[in-house]
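Morning F.,

Quick status update on the modeling queue. The single chain you submitted on Monday has been processed. Sequence for confirmation:
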Amino acid sequence: MPENHLFISMTNDDIIRSWLMQLQPISLDEMSGVKLLNRTDTKFVTSKAELAALMEMAQGKYFAQQIDDKRIASYETTYWDTPEHRFFIDHHNCRAPRQKIRVRTYLDSDLTFLEVKTKNNHGRTKKKRITVPSQERDEVIEAGGTPFIEGLTGETFDTIIPTVQNHFQRITLVNYGKTERLTIDFNVRFDNFETGLAAGTGDLVIIELKRDGNVYSPILDILRTLRIKASGFSKYCIGSVTTNGNLKHNLFKKKLVKASRLSHHQFIIP
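C-alpha cells below.
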C-alpha cells in the first residue's frame, strides 16, 4: 500500500492511479454476473482531490474493472439531436419521459454502439443499443441504425444531426457484494459540430452509482463522510451549453457554478 508521506509530491492523478492499482481486479466476464435487477441510478459531482480520498477509502470494499491490464478506459461519444435540439430541450425542461441518441466507442477495445437512453416518469433510465462498425453516419445506417432509432424515438437519420462529441476516461468499481457498480468519469472534453467550439472540465469528476434497490452501499457511507451530495449532471447538456451559447440554459446555471467551484476551471457559456 502506498505510503501517505510519498503523496506530498504526487499529483491528484498520480494518487488516484496509485490507490486504483491497490484494488482487487474484476474481469468483464465476472462483471457480467453483476445483475442489478431493481436498479437505481444516482449521480454525484466532485473533484479529483476528493476522488483521491474516495479511492483510498474504497480499499478492501471494491473491485476495479480491468480489461487487458488497463483499469482506466477511454471513451468517445457522439450525441445526435434534431436541428431544433428536441432532446436537449426536453432535458432542460425536466420533461419525462425523455430520450437521448448517441454513438459511443470504447476506444481501448474498438467497440462501437448506437444507443438510445430513455428516462421514464419514475426517474428510471433504460438503455437499448446495437453494435455498429464505427461512428460514421453511413456505417451506422447500414448496420440497421435507422429502424432501431425510429422504433424507439420516432426519429430517423434524416431528421437528426450530430451535435456534440465528448471524450473522457472512466474507472469502474464493483462492491464485494456485487450489488452495485460505480462509474467514475474525468478528463472530460467536448467538441461541438455546429459551432466548432471546444470546452474542457478541469478537475471535475462525475460519479454514477448503479445499485440494486436499497441494499447496503459502502460508497454511500464514503460519500457522506466526504460530504459529496447527489447532483444530477448530463455530459450531453453541459457539453452543449458550454460550446453553444444559443441554447436555452437557465436551469443549468447553478450546475455550472458548482462545477466551476469544484473543478478549478471556469465553465462559461460562449
